[in-house]
Amino acid sequence: MLATLEMIREVYGGAEGYVKDKCGLSDDDIARVRQSMVHMAPLWPDGTPCPDVESKRPSPLRSQACLVQHRTMHFEISKLVTHQPIHETNLKNVS
Amino acid sequence: MIHCTAGKDRTGVLGALILDLTGVDKDTIAQEYALTESGLEAWRPTVVEHLLQNPALEGRREGALNMVSAR
């Protein structure tokens, strides 16, 4: 994945370059994606970051545990394609 | 919604593009992609055996294992 990201950076100028050149997204579209997906870490009213949070980078979209849960669920759903028995306990609501 | 089969490669690359677009650092992106390894762990042996039946792989287990990994 690191090599893939480096290639995307070198060949397309990062994800931004790729989605603009190859997918036809506008600056506006990109701004809207960022706006809806990035939640900046909270700051105190005077602008200093809350002590237990890194403020300079966007927080990950999901916690790691949540992502593993998602992927387990996807694995169970993929079994529908291969007609294998499903473990229903894995098909639970993911918050 | 992403149309994919294993939810690993097309999904993984698209997820990485979205994370890169929103400014996530490359190490975090690689870490998120690597979560697929644990998420698909139960699925891996079945798919490897199934893939080895494809003549294109010429019975090479390492090739099949590469196809189902997420690194």
Q: What is the overall number of helices of chain B?
A: 4
Percent strand of chain B equals under 5%
Q: Can you summarize the main beta sheet of chain B?
A: none
Distance between the termini of chain A: 27 Å
Structural class of chain A: mainly alpha
Shape of chain A: extended
Largest sheet of chain A: none
Helix content of chain B: 55-70%
Low-confidence stretches of chain B: none
Say how many strands of chain B there are.
0
Per DSSP, the total helix count of chain A is 4
**What's the end-to-end separation of chain B, in Å?**
23 Å
Poorly predicted regions of chain A are 53-59
* Counted beta strands of chain A: 0
Could you characterize the architecture of this molecule?
The complex is a heterodimer of chains A (95) and B (71). Chain A has 95 residues and is mainly alpha-helical. Helices cover 52% and strands 0% of the residues of chain A. Chain A is built from four helices and no strands. Chain A has helices spanning 2-12, 14-21, 27-37, 64-82. In chain A, helix 1 (2-12) packs across helix 2. With 71 residues, chain B is mainly alpha-helical. Chain B has helices spanning 10-21, 26-39, 44-52, 61-67. The longest helix of chain B is centred in the middle third of the chain and has 14 residues, at 26-39. Chain B starts with 9 loop residues before the first helix and ends with a helix. The relative contact order of chain B is 0.15. Classes of the chains: A mainly alpha (95), B mainly alpha (71). Chain A binds chain B through residues 1-2, 4-6, 8, 14-16, 18-19, 30, 33-34, 37-38, 57-58, 60-61, 64, 67-68, 70-72, 74-75, 78, 81-82, 84, and chain B through 5-7, 12-13, 16-36, 38-40, 42-43, 46, 70-71.
